[in-house]
Amino acid sequence: MLSSLYPLVRSLLFRIDPEKVHHLTLAALGAAGRSGLAGMLGPRVPDAPRTVMGLTFRNPVGLAAGLDKDGACIDGFAALGFGFVEVGTVTPRAQPGNPRPRMFRLPEANAIINRMGFNNQGVDQFVKNVQAARYRGVLGLNIGKNADTPIERAAEDYLYCLERVYPFASYVTINISSPNTKNLRQLQGAGELDALLAALKDKQQRLADMHGKLVPLALKIAPDLDDEQIKAIADTLLRHQIEGVIATNTTLSRTAVAGLPHADEAGGLSGKPVFDASTEVIRKLHAEVGQTVPIIGVGGIFSGEDARAKLAAGASLMQLYTGFIYRGPALIAECAAAARTRSA
């Protein structure tokens, strides 16, 4: 079973360029998903069902967006035991992202820095991939804006993507917090966020009437927020009755990795160094929104103990990204078991 061999596999993979490994892994996982063999790659994940945003999750451990930007490996990831899968970020038009190299490992800190820049094949191909998947569990579709779309017209990109992905999503994530698209985080400002969410909620209601179902919206926010910004975002989420919030994306801070190789590379830092900051945002956000806006906690989860800490801070669900890369499929089962133990 791959989970027991993963440390050896990882040591081999970590000798190869990170982006090359990423594409090789996706290709292998996609093939395993299509053949039905992906379920043999990890340990059995215990059920720990819960209902959040009106959706029933098999367990509270999900795949974070970013690993499968084009939604090409949904079946493969789902077969590993994730309780839900989120794919994207997708933009209206295909775009190459930022120049390479744009992904860097910091193994001494259990971290990754990336400045991918929403590289993807565009929403039309994304939807085709989603439609081709056999997975029928909870599927989150994460949307963003094209790099060359002026920030003043960002809402147009989000509205376009929302309309395209809506019929195929269990929930839709609005990603305004990637540090790798110029000026994107401006959309977290009170005025900009208020206008964007008002437009999206109006569109959501019209799409719900058209398709006969209300697909929840979740907002993905950054860890680099002060208390005033967190409160303003919380107030806006409550005012517009947004169904969920994902806390958090990657950080621009380098305090925890100062002096390490690649630490000065531009981009978002993920992994262990972001754990405390993301957990603190969850705690402060939960104090403002309570149970009204469920929180999906993500950032630096490397163990069952980390998973319990996210839940204790106020998260209802969690997602894995960098921890999954470093620990492999065994981490999914460990976190799901920890969540079940905590709720027992």
TrEMBL record:
InterPro entries: Aldolase_TIM, DHO_dehydrogenase, Dihydroorotate_DH_1_2, Dihydroorotate_DH_2, Dihydroorotate_DH_cat, Dihydroorotate_DH_CS. It comes from the Bacteria. GO terms for biological process: 'de novo' pyrimidine nucleobase biosynthetic process; 'de novo' UMP biosynthetic process. The keyword Membrane applies. PROSITE patterns: DHODEHASE_1, DHODEHASE_2. The active site is at S178. Its main location: membrane. Binds 1 FMN per subunit. Pfam families: DHO_dh. Pathway: Pyrimidine metabolism; UMP biosynthesis via de novo pathway; orotate from (S)-dihydroorotate (quinone route): step 1/1. It catalyses: (S)-dihydroorotate + a quinone = orotate + a quinol. It is found in: Cell membrane. Its EC number is 1.3.5.2. It is a peripheral membrane protein. GO terms for cellular component: cytoplasm; plasma membrane. Catalyzes the conversion of dihydroorotate to orotate with quinone as electron acceptor. Monomer. Belongs to the dihydroorotate dehydrogenase family. Type 2 subfamily. This is Dihydroorotate dehydrogenase (quinone). It comes from Trinickia terrae.
